[in-house]
Design brief:
This protein is an alpha/beta fold and 281 residues long. It folds into two domains: 172 residues, HUPs (Rossmann fold, 3-Layer(aba) Sandwich), CATH 3.40.50; 95 residues, Pantoate--beta-alanine Ligase, Chain: A,domain 2, CATH 3.30.1300. The chain is built from eleven helices and nine strands. A six-stranded parallel sheet has the order 1-4-3-2-5-6, with helices on both faces. Strands 7-8-9 form a three-stranded antiparallel sheet. Strand 2, helix 2 and strand 3 form a beta-alpha-beta unit. Helix 10 runs antiparallel to helix 11. The termini are far apart. The structure holds adenosine monophosphate (AMP). Adenosine monophosphate binds next to helix 2 and strand 5.
C-alpha cells in the first residue's frame, strides 16, 4: 500500500493511474478506522481497479472545539487496517497543506442543510463540502463511497456534486453495526462503559418504531422514540426526524409513497451519536 503525505506526490500517483485509464474509487475518512470504513473500501474494491482512502480530521467541519480536540487519532493502527483490507493507497495530508489559506467558500445546499445535523451543527456541512470538494479536486476519483450512517451528509455531497458539475459518481453504502446493533462510529471509542452498554437502545428503539409505524402517525412515533430513549436516563435525544430520502422534507405521514428515513442524534454523556433507519423495509 502506498502511503502518500504530500500533494505533489498524490498528483504523480493520480497522473499515473489516469494514463493507464484505471478507474479510481475514493473513500474519504477522518481515521480511527473501523469495519464501517473498511466496508466502504470493500465496496470500492469490488467496483474499481484502484482504491484510494484519505485520512484527514477536517477542522472546518467541527462546530465544537472539544469534539475536534478529543476526536480519536491512531494513524499507525489505521495504516495496518488499510493494508490488511488491501487498500491500494492512502492520502494523509497535513492541515497546512489542505488549508494553505482560510477557506471562505460558502456552499448553497438548497435548504437540505437547515434541519437535523445542519440545524444542530451550524457550519458542519459547509466544512464537509469544503474538504470533500478539495479532496475530489486533488484525487479526481471516478467513484466516491460514503456511508449511509451519515444519511444527510450523502445528500449534501450529491447536491454539491450536482451544483459544481463534478464528474464523480457517489455511492452510498449500508450502515455497519456492532453485534448489539450500535452503529459503528469512531466516537464509540470515547463512550464510558455505562454509555456504551446502553447505546444499543438507539437502534433497538428505531427498529421497534418501524414495526409500530403501521398503526401510529409520524408525530406519535416521534414522541414514542424520544420518550423511550430518554427514559433510559443515560441517553438524551437531540432530535428525531422523519424525512423523505430525496428532498429531506419532514414527512407528515408514513403513507406518502416515499422512502421515509428516521434520523436521530443522541447524547450519550458528552458524546454525540447519530443513526438512522428506513421506514420502508
Ligand atoms: P468518518 O471517518 O466518520 O468521517 O467517516 C468516513 C466515512 O465512513 C463516511 O462516509 C461515513 O459515513 C462512513 N461510515 C462511518 N461509520 C460507518 C458505519 N458504521 N457504516 C458505514 N459507513 C460508515
Amino acid at each position: 500500500m502506498q502511503v502518500i503525505y504530500k500533494i505533489p506526490e498524490l498528483a504523480l500517483y493520480i497522473e499515473r493511474l489516469k494514463k493507464q485509464n484505471l478507474e479510481i474509487g475514493f473513500v474519504p475518512t477522518m481515521g480511527a478506522l473501523h469495519e464501517g470504513h473498511l466496508s466502504l473500501i470493500g465496496n470500492s474494491k469490488k467496483r474499481c481497479p484502484v482504491t484510494l482512502t484519505s485520512i484527514f480530521v477536517n477542522p472546518t467541519q467541527f462546530n465544537d472545539p472539544n469534539d475536534l480536540k478529543n476526536y480519536p487519532r491512531d494513524l499507525e493502527t489505521d495504516l495496518k487496517k488499510l493494508a490488511s483490507a488491501s487498500c491500494d493507497a492512502v492520502f494523509v495530508p497535513s492541515e497546512s497543506d489542505m488549508y494553505p489559506e482560510k477557506d471562505t467558500r460558502v456552499f448553497d445546499f438548497d435548504g437540505i442543510d437547515t434541519l437535523m445535523e445542519g440545524e444542530h451543527r451550524p457550519g458542519h456541512f459547509n466544512g464537509v463540502a469544503q474538504i470533500v470538494s478539495k479532496l475530489f479536486d486533488l484525487v479526481n476519483p471516478d467513484v466516491a463511497f460514503f456511508g449511509q450512517k451519515d444519511f444527510q451528509q450523502v445528500a449534501i455531497i450529491r447536491k454539491m456534486v450536482k451544483k459544481l458539475n463534478l464528474n464523480v459518481q457517489i455511492v452510498a453504502c449500508p450502515i455497519i453495526r456492532e453485534t448489539d446493533g450500535l452503529a459503528m462510529s469512531s466516537r464509540n471509542l470515547l463512550l464510558t462503559e455505562e454509555h456504551r452498554k446502553i447505546a444499543p437502545l438507539i437502534h433497538q428503539t428505531l427498529m421497534q418504531a418501524v414495526a409500530k409505524s403501521n398503526g401510529l402517525s409520524v408525530p406519535q412515533i416521534k414522541s414514542w422514540v424520544v420518550e423511550t430513549i430518554n427514559q433510559s436516563g443515560l441517553l438524551k435525544v437531540e432530535y428525531f426526524e422523519v424525512v423523505d430520502d430525496q428532498q429531506l422534507i419532514p414527512s407528515k405521514t408514513f403513507k406518502n409513497g416515499k422512502n421515509n428515513i428516521g434520523c436521530i442524534a443522541v447524547w450519550a454523556g458528552n458524546i454525540r451519536l447519530i443513526d438512522n433507519i428506513s421506514f420502508n423495509l
